[in-house]
Amino acid sequence: MTTKPEKKEFNYNYLSVIFLYIWAGAFLFSATSIKDDASRMFPTFISIAAMVLATVLLIKTYRSKAGNKETMDFSGSREAVIFALILLLYIGLAAVVGFYFSTPVYLYVTMYLLGQRNHKLMAIVAVSMPLIIFLFFDLLLGMQIPMGMLAEWI
Asked: What is the DSSP string of the chain?
């Protein structure tokens, strides 16, 4: 009787390391186009820190013993995809109707999907957060939030 060779499990940390190296490399490369040295310092630091942390993860993963394998649980993947799609819709809606009109809708819908059923609280949060952002950024700091394409047409 011949026995099948035991299949070695793939460690997904290696994919994370590759992704981090690519992301940090691209970020570091794009930071070189920033002309001001002081402005270039922070993105360069973040890129180098990400590469160092990716290297630590690579070494830790390589040195880990077979008994310490982490199991991957993809049970929340469906909800994550739904929230990613809702976020993309929010970004598109904000580009069309502006931040101040799309944010209350986004906050209300996401609070509902996360399990909040107190509609009064949901409405208060959905209306007050854009108002607080308006007061802080527009009035206090003098930074105007983009109003969207619809405001340009009106």
From this structure: ---PPPPPPPPTHHHHHHHHHHHHHHHHHHHTT---HHHHHHHHHHHHHHHHHHHHHHHHHHH--GGGPPPP--TTHHHHHHHHHHHHHHHHHHHHH-HHHHHHHHHHHHHHHTT---HHHHHHHHHHHHHHHIIIIIIIS--PPP--HHHHH-
What are 63-96's pLDDT values in tens digits?
886 555 666 677 888 999 999 999 999 999 999 9
**Spans of all domains in the chain:** 13-66, 77-153
**Whole-prediction pTM value?**
0.59
| pLDDT range class, residue 111, cuts 50, 70, 90 | very high
